[in-house]
Design a protein that fits this description.
heterodimer, A: about 100 residues, alpha+beta, 3-stranded antiparallel sheet, 2 helices, B: about 250 residues, mainly alpha, 10 helices
Chain lengths: ~100, ~250
Amino acid sequence: MDNIKDNQGDVWEVFVQSKPGLPHKHAGSLHATDKEMALQNARDLYTRRNEGTCIWVVPSNAIVSSLPEDSDSFFDPSDDKIYRHPTHYVMPEGAKHI
Amino acid sequence: MTQQDALINYCLRLGDSSLILGQRMAEWCSNGPTLEEDIALTNISLDLFGQARTMLTYAANLEGKGKTEDDLAYRRSEREYYNTLLSERPNGHFGDTIARNFLHDVFLYHLYTALKISKDETIAAHAAKSIKEIAYHLRHTGEWVVRLGDGTEESHQKIQQSFDDLWMFTGDLFEMNEVDELLIKAGIAVDLNEIKKNWESTVNEVLQRATLQRPKDDYMQTGRLKGMHSEYLGHLLTDMQYLQRAFPDATW
């Protein structure tokens, strides 16, 4: 990062778990100079209204993302394979959570 | 002095220190060094106002003259305030604010830890609730003290100067009078000499981690017990009390 233009620190991504056992969900991003400060800032920015039980912070540059130009090869092949969705079964009577 | 009078004064001390420091932190709103820090500083302000409300409401009830927390916050003059001298120090630069709040947070942290077993139920409950917030404030300022002290040459020198300038107001935190004497006997208040030992050890430890010099104990400015304040409190109050002074009893 260019420190002359921006001295707010690196960008971190924040993941908040709302209840024990649930997956951590991406909540947003923030600036911080190190991991301890990132965690503190995340607490202030994303959990001050009782949203969470656990926070993860990850340096943004550690996240590997697929690119828009990859989307054809990544996601299109699943379009015509509806049999991958469990929609061809007859639902047993009384089953509520399928 | 009756125990009731002493208790009212004690609640004002606790409430006023939170109120005035909260007002100082509110001055940071929209002026923080980064967006994240701006929110952190004003969050701390809101926590402090919450603590002030509990204590001022309790003081007003104890007084029994039909006053409210707002009367106490907005209708008193400087000499009727019992906040710590440290809490009214101006914000200065970010390092000044961090140093001031750190010294104050350590004090409140050890004070409220001890007050959790106060024989006054309201104070004990207030301490138990507030300590969680104060622990977070202390973590925040403590981490910043280490980063500024052990940061660049410039940040080190600046925050060392902040501590040197503020040190003469730390003696005031531990002053006691007959109010303390009465309430310590009743098991309501705590001996600030004991708090001072813990304060010393936490402050020394963090300063050491931050590669900072602990300033020497020299002349100490005191006065909070008598409501003797620095010139800064009056200015702060004109800002904070502006609405009630200009439009008494204004309502939404």
